[in-house]
């Protein structure tokens, strides 16, 4: 095992830099260190101006996604040992405007997240709390559970070849989230989500490359969600042509 | 400075409590202008890391009285019983509300919500979404909040100070991370929902953001911090990283084993182990399902006896779930398997998990009453940053997720009422205060040159001092040494240096501001612990090993002064359950003074 490993870090400061540059740093190599540990080591001891987001360091808050050797990863789950002998190149998530160093702008993603109305919609008036929980069998739960596991880390956007060129594309995580609610037995809001999901920038933009599902750290399978939505949309369209076909 | 921003209510913190408060306020008065200020995007908040579940009585074999008694005895009688009664009464409704908002609770075959046992509970009452309960609750709350378009979110704005004028809290000063601009964000009421400060310790389950900012802000504004000496060590964290392995692993039947292969909890008055194949295992309020304080203390004794394993990151014992089998592990505790594989390099289906006690939760916090009000008019607090208190000297597992719902909602509704009846804001005076704050931050931090102390150095020394002197077992001399060290570090903080003097997304600046809050709450915690000369729940003084109800059945209140904190005390509300012995692992009947002043279910 080597004593050290080299990190090549993307550096960009909007007030100072015309264009980004790469800066190389040597960090101690430790068998159980992840890329995030190396960044924290540098921030604490070497260069306090290094800028990146992180929080939970256990793969659930979704803050620390970056490109590691060109591949979108949660840096809290990217072990140095898997990149021997180095160097390891770390960059901000691909396809997003950069605020500074590894920090990207989330505005577009956050706006898209709201656009699919990701909450339970009831056509009928909501039941009161006194009537207790909605019944939902384990099978009904299983129908959408996978799509509820998204941590909004946006690795799938960084991996999506469509989003890299068409930023209007609603994108994998948000379309999977729409599907998560559409498939929830408690929800009655499908028709309110269709205008976004079925629009040109919605599911039909997806060319089914499947990279989103390949990079997802939580196995959400957005590509599968989009495929499923495409089939439902076709069935829905056919139904709408039939008299009384639309419920 | 730029003009102040103004709203009706300002909620600081975008975790579970803050989001629940936002929704409650928005539902109470849809016309209300609500601001949510959070240093991270709401879905990054630490609620996301909660795993095991949320307690609330829903099954016919359970009662509100039993939930209350479990909570109060778990708290070593330091909880306020009126608050606990309110809490257990509201809990089921709040959890059903979350269900209606889409939280994917795990289910029984008939479609009803499933519950699992947790430590210190007489009955199974923990609602769960596999072992990512906090994650699912947080995302359900955040996504539900998005439909309330009157909510203005200030995502990635770091609040630095409370604005207090005419004896009322009227807003905060906050830095927009993206631009570095500092603005006053005014509101007729402010709700603190900023979480605890576990990061003052070196080895913690807490995320990096858990630096106690809200505690610091309230404390510096003159609001006392209650019961801060009570710090919960969770018995099962992964060595090295401190990543949490949920209590649900034991709720599902996992066992703790020392290096002799013994289920050592039997030696600590926690009951008699049943074979893992026995139908009655795991037994409630017994052995591995004892309360967290007692389990973490048992580990320390095992360490003294040499009954623990030695590893590169210190000593540990084994949490063994192998007998559950792969199917149950994958369906009930899949995240445990993922975390153990990634961060301990073992597969719990085939190997025991190395675990050791780890700082997890602060029972203490900003002192509030059961209406979520602080002593500062217009300031409310809820969630881990608040101390109502329902948790007393030791919180029961799965009460905290429910607490942030119950008291987040109460805070939201009450702050909305307050805002409607207190319209006036002293805008000019508040902007002047914000100017002073801007100058302070520019002068002391951003534009400062010539300092020599690195942030990380002071932070690391603080953390080590807390662990060595204010950990699971404490003495007068260990606490005094820590208090002296913290005082020294506060001095040295004045001499810190930043590498980064720019405005845009300056996370070194926010780290410095966090460190300042951490130093203040560490000082308050240590002095509160020095003054409490008894052992109760998570506060164990080897020089005062007994509980002393005569002198210390009282809440401590730490007040900020220019010198050391001033500690005074407030009575504990006792309604129906007089202080008694905490009994685990054997039969007991909770003593209760009739007649019942409230209804069980």
Describe this structure in words.
The complex is a heterodimer of chains A (247) and B (601). By secondary structure, chain A is α+β, with helices and mostly antiparallel strands. Chain A has two domains: 4-104, Beta-grasp domain (Ubiquitin-like (UB roll)); 107-241, Orthogonal Bundle (Fumarate Reductase Iron-sulfur Protein, Chain B, domain 2). Chain A has nine helices and seven strands, in the order ββαβββββαααααααα. In chain A, the strands form two sheets. Chain A has a five-stranded mixed β-sheet with strand order 2-1-5-3-4. A two-stranded antiparallel ribbon of chain A has the order 6-7. Chain A is elongated. With 601 residues, chain B is α/β, with parallel strands linked by helices. Among the domains of chain B are: 236-357, Flavocytochrome C3, Chain A, domain 1 (Alpha-Beta Complex), CATH 3.90.700; 437-571, Methane Monooxygenase Hydroxylase, Chain G, domain 1, CATH 1.20.58.100. Chain B is 34% helix and 17% strand. In chain B, the strands form six sheets. In chain B, strands 7-3-2-11-19 form a five-stranded parallel β-sheet, with helices on both faces. Chain B has a five-stranded mixed β-sheet with strand order 20-18-12-23-24. In chain B, strands 13, 14, 15, 16 and 17 form a five-stranded antiparallel β-sheet that branches. In chain B, a hairpin with a 6-residue loop joins strand 23 and strand 24. At the A-B interface, helix 1, helix 2 and helix 3 of A face helix 3, helix 4, helix 9 and helix 14 of B.
N-end to C-end Cα span of chain A: 64 Å
Q: What is the assembly state of the chains in this entry?
A: heterodimer
What is the CATH top level name of the largest domain in chain A?
A: Mainly Alpha
- What is the SS-derived class of chain A? alpha+beta
Largest sheet of chain A: 5 strands, mixed
């Amino acid at each position: 095992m080597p004593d050290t490993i080299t990190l090549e870090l993307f550096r960009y400061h909007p007030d100072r830099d015309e264009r980004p540059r790469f800066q190389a740093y040597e960090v101690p190599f430790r068998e159980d260190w992840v890329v995030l540990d190396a960044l924290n080591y540098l921030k604490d001891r070497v260069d306090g101006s290094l800028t990146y987001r992180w929080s939970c360091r256990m793969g659930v808050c979704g803050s620390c996604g970056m490109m590691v050797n060109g591949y979108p990863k949660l840096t809290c789950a990217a072990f140095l040992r898997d990149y021997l002998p180095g160097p390891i190149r770390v960059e901000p998530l691909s396809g997003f405007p950069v605020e500074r160093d590894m920090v990207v702008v989330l505005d577009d993603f956050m706006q898209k997240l709201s656009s699919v109305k990701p909450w339970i919609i009831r056509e009928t008036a909501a039941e009161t709390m006194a009537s207790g929980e909605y019944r939902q069998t384990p099978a009904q739960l299983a129908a959408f559970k996978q799509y509820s596991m998204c941590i909004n880390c946006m690795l799938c956007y960084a991996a999506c070849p469509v989003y890299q060129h068409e930023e209007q594309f609603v994108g994998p995580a948000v379309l999977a989230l729409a599907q998560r609610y559409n498939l929830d037995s408690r929800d009655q809001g499908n028709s309110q989500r269709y205008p976004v999901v079925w629009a040109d920038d919605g599911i039909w933009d997806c060319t089914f490359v499947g990279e989103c599902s390949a990079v997802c750290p939580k196995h959400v399978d957005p590509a599968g969600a989009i495929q499923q939505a495409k089939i439902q949309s076709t069935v829905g369209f056919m139904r709408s042509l039939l008299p009384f076909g639309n419920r | 400075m730029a003009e102040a921003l103004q709203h009706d209510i300002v909620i600081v913190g975008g975790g579970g409590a803050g989001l629940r408060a936002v929704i409650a306020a928005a539902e109470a008065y849809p016309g209300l202008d609500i601001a949510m200020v959070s240093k991270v995007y709401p879905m990054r908040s630490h609620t996301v890391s909660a795993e095991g579940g949320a307690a609330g009585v829903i099954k016919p074999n359970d009662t509100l009285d039993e939930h209350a008694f479990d909570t109060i005895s778990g708290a070593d009688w330091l909880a306020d019983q009126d608050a606990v009664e309110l809490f257990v009464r509201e809990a089921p409704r709040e959890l059903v509300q979350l269900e209606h908002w889409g939280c994917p609770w795990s289910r029984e075959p008939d479609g009803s919500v499933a519950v699992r046992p947790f430590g210190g509970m007489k009955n199974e009452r923990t609602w769960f979404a596999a072992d990512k309960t906090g994650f699912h609750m947080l995302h359900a709350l955040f996504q539900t909040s998005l439909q309330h378009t009157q909510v203005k979110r200030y995502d990635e704005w770091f609040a630095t100070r409370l604005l207090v004028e005419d004896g009322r809290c009227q807003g905060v000063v906050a830095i927009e991370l993206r631009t570095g601009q500092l603005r006053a964000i005014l509101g007729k009421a402010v709700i603190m929902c900023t979480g605890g400060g576990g990061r003052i310790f070196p080895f913690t389950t807490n995320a990096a953001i858990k630096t106690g900012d809200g505690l610091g802000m309230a404390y510096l504004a003159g609001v006392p911090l209650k019961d801060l000496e009570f710090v919960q060590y969770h018995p099962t964290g992964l060595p090295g990283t401190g990543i949490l392995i949920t209590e649900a692993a034991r709720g599902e039947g996992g066992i703790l084993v020392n290096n002799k292969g013994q289920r050592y909890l039997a030696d600590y008055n926690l009951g008699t182990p049943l074979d893992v194949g026995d139908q009655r295992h795991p037994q409630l309020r017994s052995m591995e399902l004892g309360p967290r304080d007692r389990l973490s203390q048992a580990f320390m004794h095992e360490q003294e006896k040499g009954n623990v394993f030695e590893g590169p990151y210190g000593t540990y014992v084994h949490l063994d779930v192998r007998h559950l089998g792969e199917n149950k592990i994958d369906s009930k505790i899949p995240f445990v398997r993922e975390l153990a594989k990634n961060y301990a390099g073992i597969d719990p289906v085939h190997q025991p998990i190395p675990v050791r006690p780890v700082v997890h939760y602060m029972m203490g916090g900003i002192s509030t009453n059961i209406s979520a009000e602080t002593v500062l008019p217009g300031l409310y607090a809820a969630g881990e940053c608040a101390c109502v208190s329902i948790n007393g000297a030791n919180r029961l597992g799965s009460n905290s997720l429910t607490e942030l719902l119950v008291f987040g909602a109460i805070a939201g509704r009450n702050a909305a009422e307050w805002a409607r009846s207190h319209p006036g804001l002293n805008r000019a005076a508040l902007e002047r205060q914000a100017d002073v704050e801007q100058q302070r931050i520019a002068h002391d931090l951003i534009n400062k040159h010539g300092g020599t102390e690195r942030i990380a150095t002071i932070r690391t020394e603080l953390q080590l001092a807390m662990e060595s002197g204010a950990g699971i077992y404490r003495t007068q001399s260990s606490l005094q040494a820590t208090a002296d060290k913290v005082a020294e570090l506060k001095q040295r903080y004045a001499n810190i240096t930043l590498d980064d003097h720019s405005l845009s997304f300056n996370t070194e600046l926010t780290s410095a501001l966090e460190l300042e809050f951490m130093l203040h709450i560490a000082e308050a915690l240590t002095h509160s612990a020095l003054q409490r000369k008894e052992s109760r729940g998570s506060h164990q003084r080897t020089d005062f090993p007994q509980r002393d109800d005569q002198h210390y059945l009282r809440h401590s209140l730490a007040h900020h002064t220019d010198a050391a904190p001033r500690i005074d005390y407030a009575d504990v509300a006792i309604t129906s359950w007089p202080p008694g012995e905490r009994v685990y692992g054997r039969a007991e009947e909770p003593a209760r003074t009739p007649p019942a002043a409230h209804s069980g279910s």
